[in-house]
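User: what does the whole thing look like in 3D?
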Amino acid sequence: MKRVVNYVFILIAGCLLLASCTKDSINPADAESINGLGGDTWTPGAIDNWIKDTLTTPYNISVKYKWDQFEDISDITSILVPPKEENIVPILSAVRQVWINPYIAEAGESFFKNTTPKYFYMIGSPAFGPNQTIKLGVAEGGKKIILLAINLTKVKGMTGYNATDSFWAKEMFHTINHEYAHILHQTVLYPQDFKSLNSNLLTTNWTDYTDEVAPRDGFVSAYAMNNSDDDFVETVSLMLINGRPWFENLIASIPNGVTDRGTTKETAVAHLRAKESIIVNYYKQVWNIDFYQLQTRVRNAVVSMLY
Amino acid sequence: MPLFQCFTKKSFHYIMNAMRKIIFYCLIATAFFTACKKNESHVFNQSPDERLNEVLAKYQSELSGAANGWNAVLYPQGGGAYFFYFKFNDANRVQMVSDFDSASAVTPKESSYRLKALQQPSLIFDTYSYIHVLSDPNPAVNGGAVGSGLLSDFEFYFNDSTTADTVKLTGRVNGSKMILTKATAEQATSYTSGQFNIDLFKESLANILQYFKRLTIGSTSYDINIDPITKVVIFTWTDAQGNIQTLATTFYYTLNGIAFGKPLINGGTVISGLTEPVWSPGTSTLNVNAGGSAATITGAAKPLVIDTDAGHRWWQYAITNGNYWISDNGFHVNGTDDAYGLKTLATDTSAYYYLMYWPQPGGQTYDVFLPAYLITATNQVDIIYGIAQRPSFLSDGRVTFRYVGDLTVGPYPGTGPAALTRTQFLSSQGYYFVQTGPVNYDMVSAADSRIWVSWVDPF
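Assistant: Here's the predicted 3D structure for the full assembly of 766 residues, as structure tokens:
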């Protein structure tokens, strides 16, 4: 009897299993009705097509310029606004000429495609922080670069441009080259020598110094004092966008005397020269790029965009 | 004897077996009767995604389906009211004009928008246009606070009270409100062809040089104070029962005048805006249409209803908070800001910064009045000369200032902007005070209401 009951039980359970769930069949096509699955969509316009043809198809770089409240904007908490449409294509063209084209010309397309950040997000306003600070660019782990202040940024050829407007565009070129150099050294680290040059002068209180006094301690800018990585990428970026004569002039204009932190003029000059030579060797040995030729190309592009 | 000791081991076993069977059959019965029920009744007969898509499609067709577009009034959280005209198409593009300034009123601008399911179905203006001007954190754009603008919004969720002809939206970040109503074909033509002239009303009103303005409709008169910067209008009047009434409301520009965020209601009179302004130079009268009735706006020497305590509040506020009052422009005379030219004052190392009224500095028995300078090299305030004086608060609301003496490092100038400012300040008739904001007071000459100075607390 017990056995019969067991069989009956198994039979019934089997029926239940087979029969009870026949109602719902999963149709993959239904997933398309889930709103927002696969990201936001809109009717593509001229700007979307330009981005697709110029950046996405050739280099696998996507650019978002439409506002998205949920875009990760790192630690920015201030109010922002989206960018003006008329600024998008001129600014991205300038980015291509100042950053993409020189690297491809010197190192080839496959190098660039392997190392480029894949995602740009554009914001109209700068991010206003406390103590009258403003943020112009942010990068997220080598994948994404956030470009701020697009509405204030102007390059040659845009309505009403004059050379005094160059500040924002130059800061943007600076940001992109800065972040891209981070990707390069995160892929293959620069020599240890660089870190030991003036590690005792690195400080998170770099905001206490100005870009004017930083060279006297052997730094190319105040932000370069933040840590060795930032020192490396600031030096690369500023050398690229400002050109070699600017760097020579920076070194030549360091005054005599000793800084508050005990750096003599000779030490400062020696440190900047050592950084230059480590960078040039790093670019040659790791990436087979002639840094000075790259510098000439970038600087020429900056000049043609701004002056 | 406790009950459970009645059972023998055998009877216990028997009972347990019987119970097992009962439970087993119950389970089978339950399974048969419930497991395969084909007609489950859902609260909704579609999935959440289907319903969401339906709602978004409905809003989309409502917005882009309005052939003549939409009239919209945006009430930013930061105050004021702003008019927009929107024309949405079904390809994520929107055209707009706004009454933010004269250029944005006559130059239609195209940008993009999209509808998105956030926590609620939402409308996002996702590239920059006139609506973002109010939100812009850059103070150079809208005169708002650094980093927050005018506390407006450009992402909105649809309120449940949205109907076929009226779309009600709430800002997602600051909670601003926006109400869209369908436009007519004539309105659409006017807004898209550069005929939205917001200067019409502004310039008509600017013909009246007096600070105090009086709106007269039939036999009833109202004090009216229109501030085009904050987009606020204040009415003060005495009602039929003799009570003093005040209405402060936002206003925005319309095709032929201004409209109020809240209507003015006085007995049976309801006025929601002032339209068709016509200036009559002969009588110095601005004729307007107020809710269908002919009305006039004229200048006045003093208000109908005087805030007799305002002067003392102004003075006491600075004492209580240990602050002083400043004015960038100094005296406004006969339609001209900074009429005495304070902004031309300069020394070799410093330049005029602001006009300052400092009650009882450091516990003194006198108040200080002076034009302060700023040393450009060090960004420090420089005080070179000033006067000591005492205010008197009169029962009719006027405040007069009595000269006590000069306070000088250098001598107080006998001629020029500083001297003219001092002479006017010490005018024996004194001043009426009008509070225009939490930390804003206007001080209007009792002798001539075409002369005034606006004080603000700089802290």
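In plain terms: Chain B has three domains: 49-192, 199-300, 310-456. Residues 1-7 of chain B have pLDDT under 50 and may be disordered.
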